[in-house]
UniProtKB/TrEMBL annotation:
It comes from the Bacteria. The keyword Chloroplast does not apply. SUPFAM superfamilies: S-adenosyl-L-methionine-dependent methyltransferases. One of its GO terms (molecular function) is 16S rRNA (guanine(966)-N(2))-methyltransferase activity. Keywords: Methyltransferase, Transferase. It comes from Winogradskyella echinorum. Its EC number is 2.1.1.171. It is an enzyme of class 2 (transferase). The keyword Methyltransferase applies. This is 16S rRNA (Guanine(966)-N(2))-methyltransferase RsmD.
Length: 179
C-alpha cells in the first residue's frame, strides 16, 4: 500500500503478511479522498478509523494534515503495526485495542469523519450495527460523515441516515449523515 497525497506522498508501507487484513485498494482510497478533499480541510477535522487493520486510512489522513486520529482494532498485531508505523513517520495517531462494537457503545467523543472497514463477510445485521451505534451515541459532529466500506454485493441503502454510495471495482463506500 502507498500514501497517495500529502507530506508522505508516494511512501510505501508494507504490512506483515500475518495480519488478518484486507487494505483498501489505492484506487478506491484515492477516489474516496478526492471526495473528502472537496468537503473538509484535513487539518481541521478529527477522524475515527474503525476496523483499522494496517492503518492505511489513518496514514492517509495524517499525511494530509489531520492530527486528531483514533484507530480502533481488536487485533494486537494490527495495533502494534499502526503504532510502529505512526512513530516511524511521526504521525499523531492514537490507537485503541478494542472490539469496535464495544468501543462504539462506550465512546462519547465526537468526530468529523468516522471510517469503518469491517470484514466483507459480515452479514447485513452486523454492518447495520455500525451506523446504529454511531448515531444512537451521537458520535458525529454536525457536519460529520460516517463512511462504511463493504463489498459491492452488500446493500446498506435501506439503513437509517444512509445518504449515498460510490463503487470502485469490488469496493463500495456507503455514506451516512445526520439528517
Amino acid at each position: 500500500m502507498r500514501i497517495i497525497s500529502g507530506l508522505y506522498k508516494g511512501r510505501r508501507i508494507t504490512a506483515p503478511k500475518k495480519l488478518p487484513v484486507r487494505p483498501t485498494t489505492d484506487m478506491a482510497k484515492e477516489a474516496l479522498f478526492n471526495i473528502l478533499n472537496n468537503q473538509y480541510y484535513f487539518d481541521d477535522i478529527s477522524v475515527l478509523d474503525l476496523f483499522s487493520g494496517t492503518g492505511n486510512i489513518s496514514y492517509e489522513f495524517a499525511s494530509r494534515g489531520t492530527e486528531q486520529i483514533t484507530a480502533v482494532d481488536d487485533n494486537y498485531g494490527c495495533i502494534k503495526f499502526i503504532n510502529e508505523t505512526a512513530e516511524a513517520f511521526d504521525m499523531s495517531i492514537s490507537t485503541i485495542k478494542s472490539d469496535v462494537f464495544k468501543f462504539l457503545e462506550k465512546s462519547k467523543q465526537k468526530h468529523t469523519v468516522i471510517f469503518a472497514d469491517p470484514p466483507y463477510d459480515f452479514n447485513v445485521e452486523a454492518f447495520s450495527k455500525i451506523p446504529e451505534l454511531v448515531f444512537k451515541n451521537d458520535l458525529l459532529n454536525e457536519e460529520g460523515l460516517l463512511i462504511v466500506e463493504h463489498s459491492k454485493h452488500t446493500d446498506l441503502s435501506h439503513l437509517e441516515h444512509f445518504s449515498h454510495s460510490k463503487s470502485y471495482g469490488g469496493n463500495m463506500f456507503s455514506f451516512f449523515e445526520t439528517n
